[in-house]
Specification:
Blueprint (H helix, E strand, L loop, with lengths): L2 E2 L13 E8 L8 E7 L6 E10 L2 H8 L15 E9 L11 E4 L9 H4 L26 E3 L6 E2 L11 E5 L3 E3 L6 H4 L5 H12 L7 E5 L3 H12 L4 E5 L5 H5 L6 E3 L8 H8 L6 E4 L4 H9 L7 E4 L21 E4 L7 H13 L9 E6 L3 H9 L5 E5 L1
Parallel strand pairs: 1-2, 11-12, 11-14, 12-13, 14-15, 15-16, 17-18
Antiparallel strand pairs: 2-3, 3-7, 4-5, 4-9, 4-18, 5-6, 6-10, 7-8
Helix pairs in contact: 4-5
Length: 392
């Protein structure tokens, strides 16, 4: 098979050929990513090859890079799942997108034909839903990445996307076309963080104007929840975080009341109950910590309070609730990708973002060239960035 370097980008001269390009390869848990040349095979049946223009780093990438869940470890691997790019070529059977289309990748795909995809009550997909264990492509169980040296080692995929590469191959169910006029740098946010948080407020609980809200953990997802709540007309948005700087950041997204658990001996849920005359209508747990989940649950009003779990819980511990506590009328639900059906809902959500229904600029705190990806990881580890966008 002929091999080319992407000199002319997506002009069509690379279709059907192996592309050699730059990627950030993870060779082991916690090891610095290595920028090196990799081979990217052409897309096979129902696959799409995309030239990534911008990508960013999410806490999910961070935890996977650290190897926090041993069962998910697979190396070498290309991480990344927040991005925006242009379709370079498509495989057999792909009709939804074509070469030249502007797209964003979807870690939570939508095949469009399974029972879940046909059910308006869920954004799960039985075929292409989020699967941290998946490492290869569905068509033939092989990878589309190999090392560019004589070893030709297979490089594993990640979360249906693997966007830390100048070119990547995705299942067609895991890519969605967006308006070609949309600002691509900002559209990276829609691949995960912004959609997950805003959608939790809009889709998962369908928040009403005048609602009271408590958000535990003010990273991008927590702040996106706040932005979604602000856009829906919430009357009170309380932010909870141990980082005092988040009190300042949160104000940009409608968080006026801020609680640092380290500043008081009183339990956080009691403080929230006092501030809201009995508890909030909705609480959102964005950390992935069982004790915080319980606090979020206890912070909601009896009779109707709903807690939405957004954090990824890597601990083997079970839910910190007694079944009888649910008789109070409080509820606990979880949300993946904010309840958005990726291919069905993202074009309209992107349009709303472009029109200013929710903020985008404030989430991008840094921008670096792609080869500085390890610096971007450190910014996230140090709590100095919300989203650092990397440009190829």
């Amino acid at each position: 098979m002929e091999v080319v370097s992407p000199i002319n980008g997506c002009s069509g001269d690379t279709a059907g050929r192996v592309i050699i390009c730059k990627a950030a390869v993870a060779w082991g848990p916690g090891e610095p990513l290595v920028i090196e040349q990799v081979r990217v095979d052409p897309p096979q049946k129902m696959e799409v090859r995309v030239k990534i223009l911008f990508t960013s780093i999410c806490h999910t990438d961070l935890s996977a890079w650290k190897g926090e869940n041993e069962s998910q470890r697979a190396y070498p691997r290309i991480f990344g799942h927040e991005a925006a790019g242009i379709v370079e070529s498509v495989g057999e059977g792909v009709t939804e997108v074509a070469a030249g289309d502007h797209v964003i990748p979807l870690f939570n795909g939508e095949c469009g034909t399974c029972r879940c995809c046909k059910n308006p009550k869920t954004n799960a997909c039985e075929v292409m839903g989020v699967n941290p264990m998946k490492r290869t492509m569905t068509h033939d169980g092989k990878t589309r990445f190999t090392t560019a040296d004589e070893r030709r080692l297979p490089i594993f995929h990640f979360l249906n996307t693997s966007t830390f590469s100048e070119f990547t191959v995705l299942e067609s169910a895991c890519v969605v076309k967006i308006d070609s006029e949309a600002p691509m740098k900002k559209m990276t946010l829609l691949s995960c963080g912004l959609s997950t948080g805003v959608g939790a407020a809009w889709n998962t609980v369908n928040m009403e104007a005048g609602s009271t809200v408590a958000i535990f953990g003010l990273g991008v997802i927590g702040l996106a929840v706040a932005e979604g709540a602000r856009a829906r007309g919430a009357s009170k948005i309380i932010g909870v975080d141990i980082n005092p700087l988040k009190s300042v950041v949160g104000k940009q997204f409608g968080i006026i009341d801020f609680i640092n658990p380290r500043d008081s001996d009183n339990p956080v849920h009691e403080i929230i109950i006092e501030k809201t005359n009995g508890g909030v209508d909705y609480s959102f747990e964005c950390v992935g910590n069982g004790e915080i989940l319980r606090t979020a649950f206890l912070s909601t009003h009896i009779g109707w309070g709903t807690t939405v779990m957004l954090g990824v819980h890597t601990s083997p511990k079970m839910l910190p609730l007694h079944p009888m506590e649910l008789f109070s009328g409080r509820k606990v639900v979880a949300s993946v990708f904010g309840g958005f059906k990726g291919r069905s809902d993202m074009p309209q959500f992107a349009k709303q973002c472009i029109e200013g229904v929710v903020k985008l600029d404030e989430f991008i705190t840094h921008q670096l060239p792609f080869h500085n990806i390890n610096d971007a990881f450190q910014l996230l580890i140090d709590g100095k960035s919300l989203r650092c966008v990397l440009q190829f």
